[in-house]
Amino acid sequence: MPLRAHAGPTKVLVVDDEPAMRQVLEIAFRRHGFEVVGAPGVRAAIEALQQNPQPFPLVITDLVMPDGSGIDVLSAAKERSGATEVIVMTAHSTVDSALDAMKRGAYDFVTKPFSPAEMLALSQKALEKTNIQLENQSLRAHISRLEPSTRELFTSPAMAKVAE
To answer: What is the rounded CA–CA span in Å between residue 9 and residue 14?
Structure first.
């Protein structure tokens, strides 16, 4: 059962120019209750990121595609929402490309071939992180809305002594 960052099924964006790989991932994720949007390349992925009313909690993208790089998809997803987790996959693994993806905020870097079960397990871990980030944002927003007298209670000298 997928984790939920919002009401309804968790949405996943799967980006790969290889139709077979994209379809295998789409089928695996749908079987586990995810709502999947597939994109055959960078341009289609960026369009999906911009047009979706809510940010995708999870994006899985190939690194090397004819119309650009998965790093472009990663950047666009993170620009839309810092809470979006991005898994970059590639058949052209180099240490430099993995480091670059991780520095830019990728959750993980996976070398093809892999099993759908491995990707699902990794995705669940990424979504756990997403949910923690969203919950943290929600709690911070709630705290910032507290009345000043309530906020002062938490920062008063008396409460500081209690905390000691």
So the answer is: 15
